[in-house]
Amino acid sequence: MTQLPQLAAGCFSGARHIYALRVYFGDTDLSGVAYHANYLRWFERARSDMLRLLGIDQRAAFDAGEGAYTVAEINLRYVAPARLDDVVRIESVCEAIGAASCRMHQQAFRGEQLLAEARLRIGFVGPDFRPRRQPEAWRAAITGFINGSTITP
Amino acid sequence: MTQLPQLAAGCFSGARHIYALRVYFGDTDLSGVAYHANYLRWFERARSDMLRLLGIDQRAAFDAGEGAYTVAEINLRYVAPARLDDVVRIESVCEAIGAASCRMHQQAFRGEQLLAEARLRIGFVGPDFRPRRQPEAWRAAITGFINGSTITP
Amino acid sequence: MTQLPQLAAGCFSGARHIYALRVYFGDTDLSGVAYHANYLRWFERARSDMLRLLGIDQRAAFDAGEGAYTVAEINLRYVAPARLDDVVRIESVCEAIGAASCRMHQQAFRGEQLLAEARLRIGFVGPDFRPRRQPEAWRAAITGFINGSTITP
Amino acid sequence: MTQLPQLAAGCFSGARHIYALRVYFGDTDLSGVAYHANYLRWFERARSDMLRLLGIDQRAAFDAGEGAYTVAEINLRYVAPARLDDVVRIESVCEAIGAASCRMHQQAFRGEQLLAEARLRIGFVGPDFRPRRQPEAWRAAITGFINGSTITP
Questions:
Q1: Does the model's ipTM exceed the 0.90 cut?
Q2: N or C: at which end does chain C have fewer Cβ atoms within 10 angstroms?
Q3: Could you say which DSSP state residue A118 is in?
């Protein structure tokens, strides 16, 4: 039987989305730990995975000119460094959702050790980068996630 | 029961290592497809995963000052673009191994479509970046992989 | 006469450090503008340039095991997108300096348009990533910068 | 008099384009030197600067749906590592130009030390990523560069 590689894929646990990644060579800098800007890439990967699991197709919406989510504000706190080969778990919670934005809290852990955390305000914008109401179905999906009623598909 | 997120993890299939990744927002550029330099990151992730599955601990070797693998030469051919959300499968083969280097062939696919491929010469170097014989156990592990006798742990 | 390429190099203007960069293809994402994580890279480049102009040799200190600056906290606000080929001006101010840390404010502009801004707490850490007093000469150099008495070398 | 920061900007020297950059923290990996994938970013920056100096507006062409240059093939050889704070000089030569493609040779130096070099085949593609004739004015500009008749504007 042919074995298949395992693709990174998150899951829901109550009102929480959980995602995991490994730290590769290209994520580190000469201080020997993950470069600080890469946490933003990791948090973005987790959010994209969350949207995908919620049935939200970012690419189709972008291609159709319907708009995209964009980070409006992010408050990041670095607690402990991540090192090569570490498995980093990203836990994401959506704290509030409005017409054109939402607030999230994302934490990166290695085991029980908090590595970094971020509070974000995400805006939905049109192709002109001006705020726009997010699609009603997306808002409903995220609301379900906030309520903890979403199950990993 | 708590569900767990799935971590990216490759596997062996004969003398081939297979790894899979998804294209995220941060991998794309304004032309709408994956930025060409990111294939080097992806191929490196696949090689690191392969080494890990072969029981080779790059981080411990690096920390102990024993050296590291480094790309000496890479010939890359881009065939078709990868887009946001695509699942990209990286297939890696080690074509030859010497005392201080090895030759590899890596291909990136979306389904059956070849996206890009690379032929690499990888050198093993000491902390001074001068060529050094790779550890005997590593060479044995890679030889086993070349012979197709390695099983995913 | 052979012409020479111009290297990016910042300057001091009162208690402000000014640095400029251009947005390249690799900085953008498929939304057509600079990927949000890249602002952290840009702000870091500006801080490194500032340290260099203050006579602080990060690499020598790192190599000697004396420690390095690390971002402990960063509060980022995105105001307007940067596009391919834009010239982005980074203005950096050091607001306070302590024994083992300092606070900075960095802004990214295109002309008079604010694109993004960050408030940072930077810590000085040893090779073990634990807080450590920054070298006295470094603290003196940064204090001179805060007082606006530093002149571009 | 207010001092102005200096922006990275290349120049022509005969049939050669010369560009310079500094290695920042974010360019390095834990081996202490520049991460190998970043040379592709650097070479791309040099090519973009060259196009800009030739009066070729990539962004306008892209926005107008006229197409863009894309790397079809790149053969990279790494000779010596680049370290934090190094000044890296990129020298670029266009070796041949066809209807829809061109061939380039790019080298990265630190002083007289060659760090890496690349031979590239660049294709011009439409928004559908299919080969397309490059605009006649662009071809004329690049031909002038090949002939060594271009002067830094």
A1: yes
A2: N
A3: E
